[in-house]
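Record 1 of the preview.
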Amino acid sequence: MRAHGRVRQARCDGDDHVGRRRRPGQLRRRGRPGDDELTPAAGSGSLWRGLLLVSLAGIVWGTIGPGAQVLHDRSGLGSLTVTAYRAIAAVAVLALVVGLTGRLAAVGRAARAEWRRVVAVGVLTAAFQALFFVSVVLAGVSVVTVVCLGFAPVLLLAVDGVRDRRPPSGGRAVSVVVAVAGLLLVTFAGGAGENAPHPALGILLALASGAAYALSADVAAPLSQDLDTLTITAATVGVAALVLVPLGLVVTAVRGDPFVTTDATSWALIAYLGVFTLAIAYALLFTGLRTTPSGAAVVATLLEPVTAVLIAVLLLGEHLTPAGVVGSLLVVLAIAGIGRASEPPTPQ
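->
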């Protein structure tokens, strides 16, 4: 009986908290799903690989601004209209991948098992994108970029401090400060004024957008431990599309904006924005979140404005000032610094 009890206990130790067997090398969560509780099986090497994937997501997101600018000039479509079509393109390609891999039933079962967190991440993602586009119209892209992307890592720093009941480490706090300083320099490097018809309301919506972005990453971090990349991406982007598509089309109808364009290049850009900056970029983010704390991931995505500025300089004829160069370097140094400050616990 004692031997039988030991065997049974060993079997239980090999299962995770919901009764599913933990595969070799799979991450394991303990306690509350905070940043410091994500334990990569391969140690710091996995953390740096995850940080690289999240950084790649930020780089891909950096093409949204220039692409949207070209799209607006060529098509005349409204921002929320483009957002709706972009979501449709992302869902279409994800559905195609799920169908071709024969995983429709498996993805559906896994998503239903975690439906509360899937819905939360999807709705927060939709809120982040919709609020961001609206705030840009009200307050200008430069101010909104700083408020939204700068507020996200600061908010997560505070959330983690409250959750852990202790102040954040000095290294991580310094990295966040350096990253926000770099973001300020990069965003305002050109020094050009912008048309801001309702700056106060725009900044308020930008804060809400940054909060939605930060919280979506925080909720997605533990979710990425339980679901594979295809499942979490298809499920959460699908939920986001259920919010963004009706919202975009209704706003387009109410405002009397055009629904379509005859420019073929515009449709190609919409497909790119959907497939690459929504489906693929979020797949990179969710994969990286398996081994990267959400706070570090949010800082890493500050490569988005850096990439946008570089594209504007290389392809759109804009000029990068010395302040922009310094800001870009500060963002890169902050990402490296927060990677060093986010040492994962040893595997259990």
